[in-house]
Write a structure and sequence with these properties.
With 112 residues, this protein is of the alpha+beta class. The chain has one domain: Alpha-Beta Plaits. Helices cover 33% and strands 23% of the residues. It is built from 3 helices and 4 strands. A 4-stranded antiparallel beta sheet has the order 2-3-1-4.
Length: 112
């Protein structure tokens, strides 16, 4: 299984709550509907832990079956077919501040 991890930051005119609500309720369903080869999609929202401030607003995880599916996704991102998703990203996230785009092969060392 391969995945893409992206660290996201909200647009400056949105509160964190507005960002998270839009990302979960609007963008998430759109991504699940149109991203080709998507096996699993997870959003990591910051937890409210006393004394811990987060400089980021969330981490997206997109899982694909294999490296070829990742390559297909990346080619799709460069095509006109991805424009609805990219335009939607502009509504809630600061695309210039996506800190990391990491394509990774997951190695689980412990499960339960």
């Amino acid at each position: 299984m391969h995945k893409l991890l992206s660290v996201l930051q909200r647009r400056g005119d949105l509160t964190r709550q507005e960002f998270l609500k839009y990302w979960k309720e609007k963008h998430g369903p759109l991504a699940m509907k149109i991203v080709p080869g998507l096996r699993r999609y997870a959003q990591n929202h910051p937890a409210d832990v006393p004394g811990v401030e987060s400089d980021i607003d969330g981490i997206a995880e997109l899982w694909f079956d294999d490296l070829q599916a990742v390559r297909n996704y990346w080619a799709w991102r460069q095509s006109d077919a991805a424009k609805p998703l990219i335009e939607d990203e502009k509504k809630f996230s600061e695309r210039s501040k996506v800190w990391v785009k990491l394509f990774a092969e997951e190695h689980v060392l412990k499960e339960k």
